[in-house]
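Following up on my earlier message about magnesium ion. Here are the inputs again, as you asked, copied directly from the submission form:
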Amino acid sequence: MTPTTETFEFQAETARLLSIVINSLYTTKDIFLRELISNASDALDRLRFERVTNPEIVPDDHVNEIRIEPNAKARTLTIHDTGIGMTREEVILNLGTIAQSGTRELLQKAVDNGDREVLSSLIGQFGVGFYSVFMVADKVSVITRKAGEEGGTFWESVGEGRFDVSVAKPKRCGTSITLHLKPVDEEAGVHDYADCHILERIVKRYSDFINYPVVCPVEREEYERDDDGNIKPDTKPTTVIEDRTLNAMKPIWTRPQSEVNDEEYADFYRHIAHDWTAPLKTVVLRAEGRIEYRALLFIPSNPPLDLGMGTPTWGLQLYAKSVMITESCEDVLPPWLRFVRGVVDSAELPLNISRETLQQDRHITHIRRFLTSRILKTLDKMKAGEAEEYLKFWTSFGPVLKEGFTGGPEYSEQLQSLLLFKSSADPETLTSLTEYVSRMKPSQDAIYYLTGDSRAVIENSPHLEAFKARKYEVLYLDDPVDELLVQFLTVYDEKPLKSAAKGAAELGDAEEREEARKGLEEKAEGLKDLMEAIKKHLDEHVKEVRLSSRLTTSPACLVGGEYDMSPQLERLLRHTRQQAPRSKRILELNGEHEVITKLAAHFDADHDDPAVADAADLLFGYSLLAEGSELPNPARFTGLLAKLMVGGL
Ligand code: ADP
Ligand code: MG
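Thanks, got it. Here's what our run produced:
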């Protein structure tokens, strides 16, 4: 049977990305080898996992190794692994597609806008490692056979937007990738990748920690020896080829921290996280005593695209005595630390531990507690000592960290000190709760916040008028998860957290409050009938109409009862659940405002003046819009507005 060759086009964006990768993103061409060895190591890991449940998939004498074979004469370099291999479909998909369907549009947009920065952060998350081969090769051939399958696949591309696929017949499972090397160009950073010594240097530099032997055949001159074993230097040496393992194979987390430099840690991070960029923070942990284990943890520089609630895979690599037992163990971290990547290696865990027993294992519970509090401690230190880095962290992962409050009080104290908020104190910087408390006015006995969709909406909300007048600072909570946060974080430093849009706004010292209350009561007496009429008209929407102590310039606003849900939280719940209560709000009127005094005059002259009902609807709509809520009946509101304009013009 003659193998038929099929030609495929790379997806358009793949081809474009390819040229970006080749031409600019990588700073050094040498790293193509790191990417190929990383993939080979992944493939060997996958095979090992497969063998646990399916030992027959490879013969008993199967050797796990990565072999790099330079051929100086042919100017080729082959990287061969005895890993899981790929089926024909997988070859086409993995080596011809970059983004998964959901992320493709994002990528497309970044490419269209020529947004290099976005692009480079996106690229890191798609795995384009393989494509880096085109920096040093003008043709690449792949022969691969999936473990457990009969035939194999041949793939070849010259990197110009097309690749050919045909049938191959390798003897064993695994993958061989042959690069047809570009001419050496030292100036452009293309070294001689057919030279063993250069390859050895690159492997040591980038892939020393790889857990499988990276073997390279090296030539050695052998001289004849006499019977005593002495070399006979006068005879012609013969050339023998022997395999040399280039990497130390020592797990990086078992090496003393003082002997590992930042770059080595970063290379390891890139390998396990499939990230393009260096980690923001590296945390090396070692626990001794009752339970012994080591951990090497990383906080990434950029959030992955799928960081949201339903992150598909997260967790740490779990090793028992330096043998990997799970690729992503979720049980060693709480879900709100799902952005942390890394490795945990325990001497205590049995090698054959299953997913189910893992969850109940007391070592695991112990490890989770320890790692959690150490990560929080690291963040705390970062916040105190490396403000800029912490801000970067907070921007990327703050919203996820806030979810931690919902998991119970265990870490809430540590979490509280990590929080940063926007605030009325300063439009530029974020504030911590401690800083807020230090700025509180002497008469102030609560920490005030307002939730809303954006800084602009919150900042201009009528709810803040009295707070502004008294120069009380208000935290601006504009992250959707903040609504949940304030359900759990109700007290800080013995001071209650209060919404500026709930309950009665009682500001100032005891005397001032008493005075304000009296003033309001008197005023309310005169407006009692009007307020009752408005309440009757708006009965469907509001549960109470009262005079406000929080307004200075606006005529009205809507507030919630002390324990009511905020409209933002209701909206949030409606997004996640079908049934969320829609609670009635309180309409507060500003008794000093001209709109209200004039309205009262109309009402007093004629209780049935239709202008009163119109005004009630307008005030209600006005209050909704001011807080960023939707109008129940926009047509009625705009109609009234037009009528009002005609009257005014
Ligand atoms: P990433 O490794 O980040 O996924 P790459 O571009 O390096 O991205 O590789 C793309 C995919 O191709 C891998 O996820 C893997 O499925 C497949 N692949 C690459 N090299 C190999 C290999 N040596 N053996 C098996 N599969 C491989
Ligand atoms: Mg890769």
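One observation from looking it over: The chain has three domains: 6-223+236-242, 252-392, 419-649. Hope that helps, and feel free to reply on this thread.
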